[in-house]
Every structure is written in structure tokens, then in C-alpha cells.
Amino acid sequence: MSTFISEPGTRLAGRYRLEDRVSDTAGTTLWKAIDETLARPVGVLTFAPGFPRVYHVVTAARAASRMTDSRLAQVFDVEDAGDRAYVVLEWVSGESLDDLLAAGPLEPARAAALIAEAAQALAAAHAAGLAHLCLTPRSLRWTAGGGIKITGLGVEAAMYGAHADDPSVADTQGLGCLLYAALTAHWPGEDSVYLPPARYVDGELCTPRQVRAGVPAGIDAVTSLALSGRPWRGRPPLTSPAALADALAQVAPATPLTPPPLAPRSSAGRAAASHAAGPGMPPQPQADTQAMRTRGTPRTASPRHERREIGKALAGIVIVLVAAAIGIGAWTLSHSTGSQAKQGGTTTPSPAASGVAVLTPVSAHGFDIYDTTGQDHNENDNQAPRAIDGNPQTAWQTLFYVNDPVFGGLKKGTGLILDMGKPVKLNTVEVLFGPTAGADVQIMVGNNNALSPDALANFTTVATATGIPGNDFTFHASGSATGRYVLIWLTKLPPRPESPKHNFEAEIFNVVVRGSG
How far apart are CA 140 and CA 142, in angstroms? Predict the structure, then answer.
């Protein structure tokens, strides 16, 4: 069987006109094409000369073409005769799972419903003797019609030579990876191009509840059972997509698959690839997906779409206008009445009169100066912007430490550092912590953010609190020190709600800095 080099404008079988090259992967090319007979877009997979797995791919495609489940992207046509082998695939218009997670994790019930649908679809495929074996966040898509599609069934495994001793267990673990990603916006398998890697402690994968507050215990347990393929906390393993779908139905309320909030990425090439069915980017073969390991520096989360940025900008303008209106009203009132606010019988100047205002940080980063945990000075740095995004549902978290609230005895402290963009003098720092009490925290200012063991010498402490009760806490700064950087330095961690006797971790959901610049 030979192959050919195709170009835009090429017609296959007198009906499939190749239009746009979507991707080139492992000796194959995915095209967006037009089926001129039925006047519809399709995906066409062609092969480079000498590609060694053409027979395997076309054989797998023929097998997949027999599937009629609407949740599985269809194979329309297969040709292996002469010098023009190709596969014609359904063109799926929609958003992939990693697109859906660009704005953060999904609500747990929705995540469970999404993966339960995918598990049911793969259960139907397994009943017909087919497996996927290459599930990634790009394999699961939310379609324009309001449902899910799984792309690449059988075909991607043939392209990459992926195989498994037990395909049922392999696909269940792949679905577990997708569920973990939907709950945490982190990927627990081998490196994902668009999602940051999952967190590991002492070689053990953190469960979704350890990564994100609010994940129900039942969904957390099902995720761990699917990922591990072995008993977990006294419960038997989940070893088939059908068993996973049933387990999710027992622990998650029935949730209609309404469209999740989307924040598509801005890259035009990425957006084009996200609409294609079948293999558009190289998937991670299942054998690699199962090889979980301790991670180093997490990657920065993917950027949002321009529309999201425009929305933020408009929201900022509205806030400024409202603040200006309030300021004018306050000025008018104070001048018309000649009165001042009084407290305890003494005159208290307004924040505007004393020069105190809300100060907006330019950026936020984890500040792990000791780096005793092998994370390359990375205390979940990719999460740090969540502490200043104004959303009280998203948080920066320290790593979690065992047996000792002083960082497991590994180091003296860690912190979250805010770059204010210019020297500031602090008045108050309001921090929304997690719900558990016990953190010891210092607020510092300085002008040097270098990561080194003696870095604290560059900072001046302006506020201190011990045994913080959790939730919203306001630090009142003292002294006249100024600095460009505001450091929230933790020297003792509160216990984690799930295991208060053994595991310790701090969470910061929001920070509001007030002072003068």
C-alpha cells in the first residue's frame, strides 16, 4: 500500500476537496475538507510516504466506522487502494476539555456528568470490541449542538502503536485522568500541552479534594478508584468504563449537560485545531498516561481568550466610574454639611483624606526561598494569580506537608509575594484564608524579590498574627516602611479539613491591599 503527498485543492474520490492543513503528526496530516457531494465539512487524514502504520490505521478506522453512538465521532469513509490511502472523519465543531478548563475547573457535578457521558460512550465501544487507549483533554469535546463527542476512537491508538494488556482498565484510567482534569484543571498523566501538571507529594498524586476545596468526597473517591485501577480506602477498583459511569451516577446528582462557561484560547491555530475530529495534535499514548510521577515546576495556566480580557477591562471601567461617583458624592456631602465621621468621640479622617486607597498588585508569585521539597523554588507559583483575581472561589495553596504544621519540619516558612509595581506604604492587608484556623503569618514590605535563603533580610515586618482563625482576616500595618513588594509570609500552616491531625496546608483566596503609593 503506497501513499501520496496531498495539497490544498486536491480532490479525493472526486468529492473530498482538501482545504486547510490542520496539523502534521507522526507521519500523518489532518485536513479540513469539504465533502462536495453532501456539502458538509469533514476531516481527512492522509499519510506521508513511507508511513509504516497505514494498514493498522485504515483497519482501525473501518472498525470504528461501525459505531453508531452519537457521542463517538464518526468515521465516514476509508480508502486504502492504489496510492491514495486516507480516512474521512466527522468534523466536530466545539470546544475540547482543555478549552473548557481555560477559565478554571468545572463545577464538580458538571464535571461528573460530563465524564459519565464519556464513560457510557466508551462502554458502548468496548461492548463492540473497540477501545480508545489515547484519551487526552483534546479527545473529549463539548459540541456546538450541546453534547459530548469523543474523537480518535481506535484510530489514534493505531497511529501511535498504543496497546494495553487490559484495554478496559486502560480506558477507565484514561477517563479518570479526564475527570481529575475537569475537577482540578490539572493533568495527572504525562505532560499535557495546555494544562499544568497535577501535584504530587512523596510520589503520591494529590486527590482532587487536596487540590481544590469543595470537591465532594464521593466524587473524589471515584476519581481515585478510576485512576489507580486498584482498591482504594477499602473500596474495590473501577476497571471498566461502564463501572465508572455507574459509580458516578451513585455519587453525583443527575445534572443536565448545560454548556459550561467557556474561555477559549486566543491562538488562531489552536482554535482551528480544537474544532477538528480525530488526531489533530499528538496524543499521549495510554502507556505513557499511566506513568505518573513526581512533578517539578508546574507550567503557567493557559491564557484566556480576548473576549474574557475585554470583559475584565469593561468591568474595571465600571468599577472606576462607580468609585468616582462615590468619591464625588462623598466630597459633595462633606462640603455641604461641614461634618466629619466621628468614632469614639474623636474625629476620624476618611481614607481619601488620609491618602489611603486600594492598591492593585501587578502580579503575584509563590515565594519559596528554601526549596527543600525539590520543587525548584516553586510553591504552586502557577496558582498565585488566583489570590489577586478578585474571585473568592479561586485560591493559591501551599504544598501540603505531613505530621508537622511547620512545613513538615522541612523549612521555616514560605510565602506569597505581590509586586505592587512601585514602592507603597501599607495601611491594611485583608486576606481571605481557607476555613481552618492555625496559621501564623507575617506581612512584610521590601524592594528585592530575589529567591535566596537570606531573602527575608531584604524585608521589613509591618504586621504579625498567630493562630489566625481562618476566613477573612485584616492585618493592620505599623511603622513607616515602604517597598515595592508585599510579602505574605507563613511560618505555620493550618490543618487540612480532611486530615487535621496529619496534613497541613494554607490557602489564600483573595488579597486586598490598602495604603498609599
Answer: 7
Q: How far apart are CA 187 and CA 207, in angstroms?
A: 12
Distance CA 433, CA 210 (A): 16
Contacts of 19 (CB under 8 A, 6+ apart): 8, 31, 32, 33, 34
Q: Which residues of 317-335 are buried (b: 16+ CB within 10 A; e: fewer)?
A: eeeeeeeeeeeeeeeeeee
Query: What pLDDT, on a 0 to 100 scale, did the predictor assign at position 292?
Result: 32
Q: In the sheet where 94-96 sits, what is the strand order? A: 94-96, 140-143, 148-150
Span between the terminal Cα atoms of the chain, in Å: 72
pLDDT at site 87: 96
Q: What is the pLDDT of residues 136-192, one digit of tens each?
A: 999 999 987 778 999 999 999 999 999 999 999 999 999 999 999 999 999 998 766
Beta carbons of 490 and 414 less than 8 angstroms apart? yes
pTM tops 0.70: no
Is 110 exposed, middle or buried (CB count within 10 Å of its CB: 0-12, 13-18, 19+)?
A: buried
**Low-confidence stretches of the chain (pLDDT beneath 50):** 1-3, 262-324, 326-353
**Per-residue confidence (pLDDT) for residue 436, from 0 to 100:** 87
94 in Cβ contact with 275 (< 8 Å): yes
The residue type at 312: K
- Which residue in this structure is represented by grid cell 493559591? 396
**Taking the alpha carbons of 222, 223, 226, 227 in that order, is the dihedral positive or negative?**
negative
Residue count of the chain, please give it. Answer: 517
366: which residues sit within 8 A by CB, 6+ positions away? 378, 379, 380, 381, 383, 384, 396, 414, 415, 416, 417
pLDDT of residue 254: 67
Query: Sign of dihedral through CA atoms 239, 192, 75, 85?
Result: negative
Helical ranges in 187-251 per DSSP H? 208-211, 217-228, 241-251
The dihedral region occupied by 145, where left means phi > 0, alpha psi between -120 and 50, and beta the remainder, is alpha
d(Cα 510, Cα 26) in Å, to the nearest integer? 44
Residues 6+ apart with CB under 8 A from 479: 460, 462
DSSP 8-class letter at 335 = H
